[in-house]
Amino acid sequence: MAKKPQSYRRGSAIMRGSQIPTETADTKLLRSRRTDPWRVLRIQSEFVEGFGSLGELGNAISVFGSARTSPDSHDYRVAEEIGRLIVERGFAVITGGGPGCMEAANKGAAEAGGTSVGLGIELPFEQGMNPYLNLGINFRYFFARKVMFVRYSRGFVVMPGGFGTMDELFEALTLVQTGKVEMFPLVLVGTEFWTPLVDWIRGSLLERGLIGTADMDLFSVVDTAEEAVDAVFSGLERIENGSGKH
């Protein structure tokens, strides 16, 4: 079990000691229905804060990846370089605000003199926001946070990661596939890591007719930071020129 944190952030409140809650706002929402009408106001406030804080951000790319990635790893160095290269193209970098790959991308963006954004989430044993943020927003609810990623990003770069990374990836794929958002680039970094998943998508989903052939073009797989950033911006250029194909 993860070590209990010394401090805990819930929205604008910071709690320590006996005040640290035993469950998150998401947990309460999904367990109890008695306070649903009042909870709507709290949910509304998260959207208002997110929209207000990010409304003037301008163009941005989100970088996803594992919070467990070590600072001395290859993936960390690649994510840091991706953050730097995105800023050099004139875009801001958005991450989940935590450690690992998120920290790396924020570090690259901040040290390149760009805008580095973190959208954090309340977790039972959270590790806090990384120190490389120009703007950090902490959310109680996953779904409010997800809206901000899609609303204020022009594309996603996805590093190797766990369930949270997969959740963000497949939600984005679904939104693009169903036309809920305009086509935007989805770039997966790390051929060795992503190939088994891509093979499963092709062999189990495509071959059974559960997705269409065109759905395989909703994402691309690359290996280097330069390839990742080139793929994102090439995709944006094609979209602006009227073609949604990768």
Automatic annotation (TrEMBL):
Catalytic function, reaction form: 9-ribosyl-trans-zeatin 5'-phosphate + H2O = trans-zeatin + D-ribose 5-phosphate; N(6)-(dimethylallyl)adenosine 5'-phosphate + H2O = N(6)-dimethylallyladenine + D-ribose 5-phosphate
Pfam families, alphabetized: Lysine_decarbox
GO cellular component: cytosol
Organism from which the protein derives: Scrofimicrobium canadense
EC number: 3.2.2.n1
PANTHER family xrefs: CYTOKININ RIBOSIDE 5'-MONOPHOSPHATE PHOSPHORIBOHYDROLASE
Protein name: Cytokinin riboside 5'-monophosphate phosphoribohydrolase
A single MF term (Gene Ontology): hydrolase activity
Family (UniProt): Belongs to the LOG family.
GO biological process, one term: cytokinin biosynthetic process
Alphabetical UniProt keywords: Cytokinin biosynthesis, Hydrolase
Sequence segments annotated as region (Disordered): 1-24
